[in-house]
Amino acid sequence: MTYTWSFPGVALITGAGGTGIGAAVAKAFAAAGCGRIAITDINPDSLQKTKDSILSSHPATRLVVEAGNIADESFVESFMDHVIRDLGRIDYAVNCAGVLGDGVRSTETTTEAFDRINNINYRGCWLCSRTELKHMLSQEPLPSHDPSRLPQRGAIVNIASQLGIVGRPSAPSYCGSKAAVIALTRSDAIDYSKDGIRVNCVCPGVIETPMTTYNQEVTDRLRPAIEIAPMKRMGKPEEVADTVLFLCSTFASFVQGHALVVDGGYIIN
Ligand SMILES: NC(=O)c1ccc[n+]([C@@H]2O[C@H](COP(=O)([O-])OP(=O)(O)OC[C@H]3O[C@@H](n4cnc5c(N)ncnc54)[C@H](O)[C@@H]3O)[C@@H](O)[C@H]2O)c1
Predict the structure, then answer these.
(1) Is 10-206+237-263 CATH 3.20.20.140?
(2) Is the CB of 235 under 6 A from ligand 1?
(3) Probe target for ligand 1 pocket from 25, 27, 39, 41, with the most ligand atoms within 8 Å of CB
(4) Which residue has a Cα nearest atom 28 of ligand 1?
(5) Is 178 among the residues known to form the active site?
(6) Are 51 and 63 in contact, with CB atoms under 8 Å apart?
(7) What percent of the chain has pLDDT above 90?
(8) 196: left (phi over 0), alpha (psi -120 to 50) or beta
(9) Does residue 154 contact residue 16 with C-beta atoms inside 8 Å?
(10) Chain-wide mean pLDDT for the chain?
(11) Distance of CA 100 from the midpoint of ligand 1 (Å)
(12) Nearest CA residue ID for atom 20, ligand 1
């Protein structure tokens, strides 16, 4: 038995463009020795940056890179087919693409804004995980790092939020969409346990990414949440990525349906 985690299978990450959590997860897989990685994002330029970054530090990585909208069912299915065609299977699927709300209460939220958030954060996550599960079900499991443990057919990590667990002012659509991701995770975890597939989610607190820093108004809106958390700082996308890799690895072989909070202690306060 080796006591370092290894990723012999294929990793797939949505929302992997730029400098956010998805990009950090993709780079962490490459750094951890995963040799086959598929990345997608709606923004082709930021996706190209993640591709360039991975290939500059790990040039032997086999990549599938395709831009598209994960709220579009036909894109999701054709992208995953592309991954299977080029890389053979899907072992570690990280559904990270997401958007923040406008920072308004329900009475100021338009139906269009509500639908947009839920179409991407909840429905888009479900479209991706449904297709990933279909492919995982048809593949042979890979052995664990520990031969005494059961092999793993696949592991899915959905990126929810601490706001799926606790409320925050003026974020009803976002909070609802992330609570839905946690509930979806638990339900899928129950259904696919017997198939050797684990489904978990990570609930980040305030993390320093383009989502939280792209304009001063958003950063100011989040400042009270940073002050409430005992660690009193924003987290780094790499700190979230490490927890995602743990949940994908066979070190997490008995972790199922969990919502792992990575928030500097916010929700315990
Ligand atoms: N940053 C935080 O504080 C924080 C906290 C909790 C949860 N999250 C969640 O983490 C995930 C990643 O967020 P981030 O902070 O890295 O933000 P980010 O904006 O850097 O990353 C989100 C990525 O998703 C992509 N995306 C948006 N809509 C898409 C769509 N329809 N199809 C495909 N790609 C799309 C964006 O282009 C972007 O690259 C999101 O689901 C977010 O809700 C973030």
Answers:
(1) no
(2) no
(3) 41
(4) 98
(5) yes
(6) yes
(7) 93
(8) left
(9) no
(10) 97
(11) 8
(12) 20
Q: How far apart are CA 5 and CA 176, in angstroms?
A: 34
Q: Does residue 92 have an active-site annotation?
A: no
For every residue of the chain, DSSP letters joined together read --SS----SEEEEES-STTSHHHHHHHHHHHTT--EEEEE-S-HHHHHHHHHHHHHH-TT-EEEE----TT-HHHHHHHHHHHHHHHS---EEEE-------S--GGG--HHHHHHHIIIIIIIHHHHHHHHHHHHHTSPPBPPSSTTSPPBSEEEEEE--GGGTS--TT-HHHHHHHHHHHHHHHHHHHHHGGGTEEEEEEEE-SB-SHHHHSSHHHHHHHHHHHHHSTT-SPBPHHHHHHHHHHHHSGGGTT--S-EEEESTTGGG-
Ligand 1 in reach of 164 Cβ (< 6 A): no
What's the confidence (pLDDT) of residue 125? 99
Q: pLDDT value at position 262?
A: 98
Average pLDDT of the segment spanning 57-62? 98
Task: Determine whether the shortest distance from the Cβ of 154 to ligand 1 is under 6 A.
Answer: no
Residue appearing with tokens 């990585």: 61
| pLDDT band, very low/low/confident/very high, at 3 (cuts 50, 70, 90) | confident
- Predicted local confidence at residue 215, as pLDDT: 86
Catalytic entry in 122, 178, 192, 266 = 178
Using CA atoms, how far residue 192 sits from 136, 164, 225, 227, in Å, is 10, 22, 35, 39
Residue among 27, 51, 122, 174 flagged as catalytic: 174
Partnered with residue 197 across adjacent β-strands are 154
